[in-house]
Amino acid sequence: MADLPSGTVTFLFTDIEGSTRLWDESPGAMGAMLRRHDSMLAARIEEHAGYMFASTGDGVAVAFGRVEHALAAAVAIQRDMAPGSDVELRIRMAIHTGEAEERSGNYFGPVVNETARLLGCGHGGQILVSGISREILGNRTPDGLGLDDLGEHRFRDVGRPLRVFQVTGPGIARDFAPLRGIEPGRSVLPVVLTRLIGREQELGDVGKEIRGHRLVTLIGAGGCGKTRLAIEAALQHEADTFDPVWFVELAPVSEPELVVPTLGRVMGATSGQGRDDLEPVVSILRTRSGLVVLDNCEHLIAEVARVVAALLRESSAVRILATSREPLGLQGEVVRQVAPLRVPPEHAAATDLLAFDAVRLFEERAAESRPGFAITASNAVAVARICRRLDGIPLGLELAAARLRVLPVEEIARRLEDSLAVLGTAGRDIVPHHRTLEATLDWSFDLLTPTERELLAHLAVFAGGWTLEAMEAVWSGDTASADSLDLLASLVEKSLVSLSDDEGRTRYRLLEPIRQYAGHKLAGGGAEATARERHARYYAQVVERAFPGMWGPEEADLLDALELDVDNVREALTWHVENGVHSEAQAMAGGLVPFWSRTHRANEAIIWQQRTLALSDRPSSSRARALVLSTLHHLEDAEKHHRMLDEAVALYREFGPRWELALALVLASDHAESTGDWQTALGLSEEALRLATDIGNESMVALATAGMGSLLAHWTSDLDRAGSLAEQAVQAARRSGSQQVLYFALNGAADLEEARGALDAAEALLIDAYAIEHQARRTGATGLALARLAEIAMAQNHLDRALSHLREQHRQIESLDYGDMRARGQAQRDQLRVRGEVEVRRGNLARGVTLLSAYLALRGVTRVEEARQQRVDGALASARTALGEEAYSAAWEHGQRLNLLDAARFGWE
C-alpha cells in the first residue's frame, strides 16, 4: 500500500453508473462483475501509487501524491472496463487537487466535498478533471490524451466555481450529455423555498417589460411581495435568454457611499477609489448583456438613481430591475405597482374562496405551520375575514398563517380585528397598504410578552443577522442563558426571527420590514442609544479578538465569520465615527486590514481610514493601526503613504504592541520594495525579523524572513544568505499554521530558487503556492502565482506552457474571481511585462512590443528588480532589430496609447 499523501493531495473518486438498476436486473451477474471490478481497481491504484481510503460499494476514493499518477490510474481503469472487456461497467471518475487534512487514514477538507460534487455531475465512461488539477499537470499529459475544456461551473454546496475538463484519447469515450446537477455559475439569485402564488399574470407582464425596456421598477408597500416577484421574473429571464443575472440586496447597506462597492462585489468586481468609480462594473457590462436586480432601493433612492443612470448611459446592453417604495424618477423608467393579492368579498361562498389568491397563499402557508390544515365550511368565514383585514398583503398573510401553531384560525381573526380597530385612525397621508402592514406587525407585536417585545426591539440594531452571543451582548450585556434561548426560540417559532445554518454557524435575522418596525419600537422605548452603543462596542471587540488570529491557523474561520457580519461591522464603525470615539474607531478600522485586503475591499478600507483619522491626530497605537491601511492605497500616491507608514512605525515604537510593530515593519518593507527602494525595504525587514524573533511570533518571523530572502534574491548577489532565509521562512510559516503566511513564504523560496537557476525547484514551490491560492477563497492574490509560473516556464524555454499560464491568469482576471483595483491592476501590469517577453520570444514581435510599451507606460511608480528590467530591455532591443524602425515605432506607439483594460485584453481575442 502506498504511503499516505499529505498537504496538497490529488483525489480520484469513482462510481458505477446505474448500479442500482444492474443489481435489480441481475444480482448474480452484478455480484461477479463487481468482484472483478474491485480487483481491477485495486491493482491499478496500487500500480500508480494511490492510497484507497474509502469505498462506497460501487466506487472508491483514492488519494495520490501527484496529479499525473491519478490521471494514469483513471485512464487505465477506464480502458480496463471499456465495451468488450471482461467487466463492462460504465464508470464515472473525477480528479481534483487541493489541501487536505489526513486523520487516521481518512481525509478531510473542502477539496473532498468538491471532488464528490465533481463526480456527481459526470456520466459513465467519463473522466472529469478540475481546472486546478489541469493547471498543476501542465504539459505532463501522457501522449495521445487530451483535456477538453467544459467551462466553469458552480456546484451545490461548493462556495466557488470550478473549471472542468474532460479526458479524451484512445479507448476513452468522448461524446456525453451536458454535465448533470450544475448550478449556473453566472446567477447569484437567492434560493426560494416556497411556491409563488397568485402572480402568474404579473410575472408575465414584468417579463415582457424587461424584454422591452431597459429599466423596470417594481413599487409598492413593504411586504407586498416586490422582492419575490423580482426574483421569479429574473429566474424566468435567465431561463429564456441565458443572460447572466446579478441580484444586489441593498437593504443592509446603510451608506450611499457603499452602493457602488456593494454592486461591484456582487458582480465580482469592486469600485475604484470612491463612489463615482463605476468602471470595473461598466467594463463587465460593456461587452455582454445581462440583468441587474437592485432590491430595496427606497432608503438610498438618490444614490441608486445616480448609479442606475450611469450604468444605462455607459452600457447599451444592461437591463435593470429595481424594487422600491417609490420610483427612481429616471427617463425611460417603466414603473409597475405590485398590488396586494386578490381577497374575497363579503359574503363570498366557502366553495369560491380558493379562487382568490390571498386565500390560496394563506391556506398553503397555514398547512406548513399546521400540517393537515385546509379550508373547510367551518373555518371559511374566519379565513376570509383574515384575508380581507390584511388586505391581501403577502407578508401579513404569512405572519397570520404562522400563528396557527399556537392559535385557532377563529381566534386569529378576532384578535386581528381588534388590533386594526385600534390603528384605524392612522394619518391619511400614509399609504393604505402600509397602514395595513403596520397593523399586522402591531398585532404580531401585541401577541408577544413584554420581555419578548423588548428583545425584538433590541434586535433591530443588527444589520444582516447576528449570533446568540451578539444578541446577549446587545440586549443585556450578559452571556447566553436558558431564558434568552427560550425567548429567541419563541421569536423564531412566531416567524418574527429567521434562523439559518451557514457552514455550521447558527445565525438569526429579521426580515427587513420587521426590522424597520422593531426599530421604531426601539426608538420609542428610550433604549436605542444604549442598544446601539452595546452593538458597536461588541463588534469592536469581535474585530479586536480576530485581528491577531488572522495570521494563524484560525484565519479562514475568522475571515468567514467577519464576512457574515460585515454589515454589523460597518454599523459599528459608523457609530464610533458619528460619536467621535476616535481611539476605538481607528483601532477597529485598522484591525480589519487583513479582512479588507483579503476580501478585496481596499477601497472601502480607505474610506474608513480617512473617516477615522479625521477624528483625531492624537498619537497612539490606535492611530498607528489606522495608518497601516495606507498599504492598501494605490501606488500612485506612494510618497504620501510612505509618510503615513513611517508615522505608523514611529507610533508603534512608542506605544506598542510589539507584534503590531513587527507587522507594520513588514508591510512598510513590502510597500518600499514595490517602488524600487529595496535598501529601505531590507532595513525594515531586518528590524521586523529581530523583533519577531525576540517576541516569538512565528507568523511575523516567516513574513520578515520571506521578505528579506526575496529582497536579497531579487536585488543582490548574496544568494547563500537568501537561501538560508527562504528555508527559515517556510519552516516558520508551517509552524504558524497560517496558509496565507505559507503562501508568501513559498513565493519567497521560489524567488531564491529562480535566482539560483534551479527552475524545476522554483516551479514546484510555485505549484504548491498556486494550490494554496485556489484552496483559499480569499487570498488577495489569486492568479499571481500563474504569472510567476509563466516566468519560470519562459526561462525553461517552454513558451507554450508560459502562454497557457498567462491565458489562465487572464481568464481569472476577466471573470473577476478577485476584483480589487490595486490587486487586479498590479496583476494586469505584471502580466503585460511577462506576456510581452513571451510573445517576442515566440516570434510575435509587434504584439510583444505593444505589450511591453503598454507596461512601461502604465506601471507608474512600480519598479522591478534589475534582472527583470534587463529582460524587458533585451526583448525590446531584439524586436527592434528584427522589425525595423518603422514597424517597431508603430507597435510602440500603439502600446503607449492603450489604457490598462484594453492593454490587458490586447492579443487575447
Overall average residue pLDDT: 85
Strand share of the residues?
5-15%
| Global Rg | 31 Å
* β-strand number: 16
N-end to C-end Cα span: 49 Å
Describe the structure.
The chain has 909 residues and is an alpha/beta fold. Helix content is 58%, strand content 11%. The protein contains 40 helices and 16 strands. Strands 1, 2, 3, 4, 5, 6, 7, 8 and 9 form a 9-stranded mixed β-sheet that branches. It has a 5-stranded parallel β-sheet with strand order 11-12-13-10-14, with helices on both faces. Strand 7 (146-155) and strand 8 form a beta hairpin. Helix 33 packs antiparallel against helix 34 and helix 34 packs parallel to helix 36 (821-841). The two termini are 49 Å apart. The model is unreliable at 182-187, 419-436 and 817-822 (pLDDT under 50).
Q: What are the defining features of this structure?
A:
909 residues; alpha/beta; 9-stranded mixed beta sheet; 5-stranded parallel beta sheet; 11% strand; globular
Give a short synopsis of this structure.
With 909 residues, the chain is an alpha/beta fold.
Walk me through the topology.
Blueprint: E1 7-16, H1 19-25, H2 27-47, E2 51-55, E3 60-64, H3 67-80, E4 91-103, E5 106-108, H4 110-120, E6 127-130, H5 131-137, E7 146-155, E8 162-168, E9 182-183, H6 200-212, E10 215-219, H7 226-241, E11 245-249, H8 259-266, H9 279-285, E12 290-295, H10 301-314, E13 318-324, E14 334-337, H11 357-369, H12 380-389, H13 394-402, H14 409-422, H15 432-446, H16 450-458, H17 468-475, H18 482-493, E15 498-502, E16 505-509, H19 512-525, H20 528-549, H21 555-564, H22 566-578, H23 582-591, H24 593-598, H25 602-613, H26 621-628, H27 638-655, H28 658-674, H29 678-695, H30 698-715, H31 719-736, H32 739-756, H33 759-775, H34 784-795, H35 799-815, H36 821-841, H37 845-858, H38 866-883, H39 885-897, H40 900-905
Parallel strand pairs: 4-6, 10-13, 10-14, 11-12, 12-13
Antiparallel strand pairs: 1-3, 1-4, 2-3, 4-5, 6-8, 7-8, 7-9, 15-16
